[in-house]
Amino acid sequence: MQNSRHQVTTETMIMVNFLEASGAPAHPIFSGSNVLRAESIGRGTKGKVTCVNKEALEWCISSGHIPVLSSIGETSSSQLVSIDAVHATAEVAKAVQAMKVLFLNTTGGLRDRGGRIIEEVHIPADLDALMKQSCSSQDHKTKELVCGLVADLPPLSSVVITSAKTILTELFTHHGSGTMFKKTERILKYSSLKDVDIDRLKKLVTRSFGRVLKENYFKELEGRLHTVYLSEGYSAVAVITQEAGLNVPYLDKFSISLQRQGEGTSDMLWNCVRRDFPSLFWRSRISNKVNAWYFKRSEGSWSNSKWTVFWYGISNQQLSYTLVEWAVKKPKSFHEPDEYEEWPAITESL
């Protein structure tokens, strides 16, 4: 333990010196400071964290310093035990409710069976598929730890596995580097509206579109409904209908709450739709800011002065003409703003 303690102390000092030399004030927190309260594992000198005392960490941060914590814990009997650095990091992140956590490995992230970096993992939606992928026992333990950590962090937080070589790309670019774990809601699938909270769904659609649905929308939808994809927290929805006389399903609504936009929820929802529907068409107002996103995910489109009609999985040109003609004539499902004298008050109250 003495050699291990000396090595950890030396590494902590090296990190502090590096940060200071780079213009980042740092403060070391060595073993014995009682930050990592631990219990020993077996009869050895290794242990696991039972509690994190945040006072020293908060003091460092409030004084303008980066705390550099050594992974040595202290038991209730004042015994010093060596803590796995990954485990210690996870416990500290939980204690301070970190918004972003970085782990470094030599491969720059988690890799799939083809050796490619897995860029994003949505928890819990991707959890089963991730854990079923073959990997080393160490990678499996890392997956379990990170997935458990994400579940205990704030909703908008993220955990990234990257490498020392690519950490700057992760920190200072939009696309990042490595594997990012994010907490997202599960997408549930319904074939009818009987198990759906209509009031919550109506609020979601109204808020995201900025328009008020017509009163009979959901009543008329029942006879045409094929599938509803809805996130657990009612922050994302896709409504698919099967219209009379058409053999291609129609995407009637695709809506993401403002709070969830930019988190990958839209891609996750779209992947659910695309997986189940080999062909689909939908329309969007010509002024819709989301149209660029739709263009990237469609295989064909047609526009007039009011609407853009999109589709994928349709190779028959005559069929696409038929779908476009139907879409542009489809009655609107929203009231126009000028149909309500108190339009701003309506949207703000929902």
Automatic annotation (TrEMBL):
GO BP terms, alphabetized: glutamate metabolic process; L-arginine biosynthetic process
Any one annotated GO CC term: mitochondrial matrix
The name this protein goes by in its record: N-acetylglutamate synthase, mitochondrial-like isoform X5
Annotated N-acetyltransferase domain residues: 185-335
Gene name as annotated: LOC110985683
Highest taxon of the lineage: Eukaryota
CDD domains, A to Z: DUF619-NAGS-U
TM stretches of this protein: none
Keywords attached to this entry: Transferase
Organism: Acanthaster planci (Crown-of-thorns starfish)
InterPro entries xrefs: AceGlu_kinase-like_sf (IPR036393), ArgB_GNAT (IPR011242), Asp/Glu/Uridylate_kinase (IPR001048), Vertebrate-like_GNAT_dom (IPR006855)
PROSITE patterns: GNAT_NAGS
Keyword 4Fe-4S found: no
Gene Ontology molecular function: acetylglutamate kinase activity; L-glutamate N-acetyltransferase activity
